[in-house]
Write a structure and sequence with these properties.
By secondary structure, this protein is an all-alpha fold. Helix content is 72%, strand content 0%. It has one domain. The chain has 18 helices and no strands. Helix 7 crosses helix 16, helix 10 runs parallel beside helix 13 and helix 14 runs antiparallel to helix 16. The chain is globular, with a radius of gyration of 21 Å.
Length: 372
């Protein structure tokens, strides 16, 4: 019973430590969904070229961080004609380049890992694009598109699938209706991710209590030639993510724990990226695109994650950015309840959440205009 309570206590502390960052990130995400018009961007999702890949990455970063919603949104884009690399870039950016993930990553692991997350994300998208261009089996993309046309995603894409608002940005910012739409977008994102977040914090909390440090040191090679350790850690990181079933922001607390217990810098990065190849997500790929395409997509993403982790490790090592010496304790071990700036920020965050959930989206009568 003692370890059981300790696991819940550790999970609760982590949630308290990051609550304000979560609310801040999802608020910015909701604002982007409402104020950035996406319909015209989707028109550029056809062929896989630098232009379309760039738009897909930007649009994904402006979307929800829920892994399940990201797969549904990518499937919708793919069904409407987006090339496979473009759809995958959008899906990856939707979970790994979003503001809320960066906010939580900053709180748990610091700005260096935020920089690594962003740098590695662009490496991953480029590697994924190259792999698909070189290895995509003939006819697989078309068969996957035909399969996707038979399935309805059942996923909500937030405001990306709402009616377009062609008003100028200044008019939308001054409109009460737009801010009610922001509240609606926040509620939709929160409804999609709250289970993932709670599961992620609980798993991290119980792993901290139940799994001894020696076990992690046996999983990750720490005393071997640099090249072997680099590759092994970058491969094992995604495998642990797949086994943990934790996706999106929920894997950041566990990433902090892994870093303090011996995983390499690149291994942490590849672990964070692996939220899109956990078993439930792979089963969704199978439903959306068919069995062969699901295996291919999962393999491409896994290989891209490993290469991106290795590349980030080498790049940051070359510039002397990887911390050396004894690892600091995980944020999960050092956090404690105290009334400080975190408490005040959380109070402000809870007040914002209260407004988001009590505000009711009311469509403006078209005869009344769009005034605030």
């Amino acid at each position: 019973m003692n370890w059981f309570l300790q696991g819940f206590y550790a999970a609760g502390l982590m949630l308290w430590q990051t609550l304000w960052a979560l609310v801040f990130g999802y608020t910015l995400s909701a604002m982007l969904q409402v104020f950035v018009r996406k319909e015209q961007m989707m028109e550029h999702f056809g062929r896989a070229n630098l232009h379309s890949m760039g738009w897909a990455t930007f649009l994904g970063a402006a979307s929800s961080s829920c892994s399940y919603a990201a797969t549904g949104a990518a499937k919708t884009a793919f069904k409407k004609g987006a090339a496979l690399p473009v759809a995958l870039a959008f899906m990856f950016a939707s979970t790994n380049l979003v503001l809320e993930l960066s906010a939580v990553l900053w709180v748990f692991m610091g700005r260096l890992f935020v920089l690594a997350e962003f740098a590695g994300a662009f490496v991953l998208i480029a590697v994924m694009w190259i792999i698909v261009r070189l290895t995509l089996p003939k006819g697989l993309e078309e068969s996957a598109r035909q399969h996707s046309s038979k399935e309805e995603s059942g996923m909500m894409m937030g405001c990306a699938e709402s009616e377009g608002d062609a008003r100028p940005l200044r008019a939308k910012i001054r409109s009460r209706e737009s801010w009610l739409a922001v509240a609606e977008a926040f509620r939709m994102d929160a409804a999609m991710v709250w289970k993932e977040l709670l599961v992620g914090f609980l798993i991290a909390g119980f792993l901290m209590v139940l799994v001894p440090e020696s076990w992690w040191q046996s999983v990750f090679i720490t005393h071997a030639p640099t090249g072997i350790r680099l590759v092994e850690n970058a491969v094992v990181g995604p495998l642990i993510a797949m086994a943990s079933f934790v996706c999106s922001i929920g894997n950041i607390p566990l990433a902090s724990w892994l870093w303090s217990n011996g995983i390499s810098f690149g291994g942490v990065v590849s672990f964070i990226y692996a939220d899109l190849i956990i078993l439930p997500i792979i089963l969704i790929y199978r439903k959306y695109y068919g069995g062969k395409a699901a295996v291919y997509i999962s393999a491409v993403l896994f290989a891209s994650m490993v290469v991106a982790g290795i590349a980030v490790d080498l790049l940051f090592s070359a510039f002397g950015l990887i911390p050396r010496g004894p690892r600091p304790p995980s944020a999960m071990e050092t956090v404690h309840l105290a009334w400080n700036y975190t408490g005040w920020l959380n109070v402000a965050a809870l007040l914002a959440v209260a407004w988001f959930f009590f505000a009711r989206h009311r469509k403006t009568d078209p005869h009344q205009g769009h005034g605030s």
